[in-house]
Design brief:
single chain, 89% helix, mainly alpha, 118 residues, membrane, transmembrane, flat, Threonine/homoserine/homoserine lactone efflux protein, transmembrane helix
């Protein structure tokens, strides 16, 4: 693994460790109820587990990238050409449907009626 991949992974881990999630909420709740001394063990466990999962995921994705790189180049060409042919033939219909989709969501945002129960 190159140093650029490692620094990218490290930056991602640092940013994600401060964002709200179940581990952070559990650590906050435990620290509030039991105090820093008793909650410290849980916090270190959450940090260690999170770092382990992130390192494992990074290594797996990095290895999959090395394994699938030759196939991805071929698939990009084959699938990309097929999608381009379909789009060139039906671009007016596709653009019309997508514009209706965007207008529907814009109108829904303007109305301001949000159903948060689902």
């Amino acid at each position: 693994m190159s140093i650029s991949v490692f620094t990218t992974m490290l930056g991602y881990m640092i940013v994600c460790s401060f964002t709200p999630g179940p581990g952070n909420i559990l650590a906050l709740n435990t620290t509030i109820q039991l105090g820093w001394k008793k909650g410290k063990r849980l916090i270190w466990g959450i940090c260690t587990g999170y770092a382990g999962v992130q390192v494992l995921c990074t290594l797996v994705v990095y290895e999959l990238n090395d394994f699938f790189s030759p196939m991805i180049i071929i698939l990009k060409y084959i699938v990309g050409m097929k999608i381009q042919c379909i789009y060139q033939h039906y671009y007016k219909i596709i653009n019309f449907v997508l514009s209706l989709f965007l207008l529907y969501f814009a109108f829904d945002i303007i109305r301001g009626e949000f159903d948060v129960s689902t």
